[in-house]
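Usage

Read records sequentially. Each one opens with the input sequence:
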Amino acid sequence: MEKKLLTEVRIKKGFTQQQMADLLHMDVSSYNRKEKGTVKIRPEEWERMARALNVPAEEIFEADDAHSFIFKDSSTGNYLGTNQYL
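and closes with the structure output:
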C-alpha cells in the first residue's frame, strides 16, 4: 500500500526522494520502494523518517495491509485438518 501521508509530508517539506534516501543512508531506489509500499518500513525507519522530516511519527505512519485468516474447524474442537487459509 502506497504511503501517501509520507509522500505528502515529504513533498510539503520540500524534500526529494533522493534527499530522503541520503538522510536515511540508503539508495533512492530502496527509499522509493518503501514509499510505494512494495517494501515494508520497519518501526525504527518510521522514526528516522519522522526525525528527518521534523514531524511526529504518527503524522506520517500508515500501517501495511493486514492479512486476514479465516479458520474453519469442526465444532468438537478437534483438529481434523479442515482449516482453510485465505
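Summary fields computed downstream for this record:
- The domain at 1-86 is CATH 1.10.260.40 (434 Repressor (Amino-terminal Domain)).
- The chain has a mean pLDDT of 85.
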